[in-house]
Amino acid sequence: MFERFRAVYGPLRDTPKAGAVWEDERLVQVEGYAEFAAEFSGASFGNGLYRVHDDRSGPLAFTLIANEFPDFASRVCPVGYDWLGRQFAVDSGRLTAGQPQILLLEPGTGEALEIPVPFTGLHEEELIEYPDAALASDFFDVWSAANAGALPLRRDQCVGYRVPLFLGGGDVVENLEVSDMEVYWSICGQLRQGTSTLPPGTSINEIAGQSGWQQ
Prior knowledge:
By secondary structure, this protein is of the alpha+beta class.
């Protein structure tokens, strides 16, 4: 199992050091998780394009999700994340053949996107056959070319939007900056909550504290 992932992403591994396996009860029945985690827990691939959770980053990611996407807290468990800080989680609220499907939680858009594959399908199909759709890999290549000095991304970093897309920020390289992932998630959540009651079309003239995202 995971031969395709190993063949494609193995050469892209940023460091041979592995983290401790996140042994969470929500992951026990996820097909393929134990085998995959034993080999790849704590791994980062392609200068931070995709990263696998371990026993330290996983619980932190779950806390971020619970705070910013509370409606999903009782049904998801994150297993990996990408360069934009987006979390891939198994979703027990959507089962196919008894296996939870993948949910992608995006701090910069405030959206949760359903990916109709299980854990094995994410790593043996989606990340292999559709890397741009799954990881915005083409966008990462463009950003990386202009920010080589920031690579490889640390595991606690992501590339966040200076102005989140849900506030009208542009989905362009000029609107990106390296951020502490925990801070980025928290600020996006605060902004989303603070603007949720505003009428559609309300103009946001200034975002205070933006410079604090830069690492």
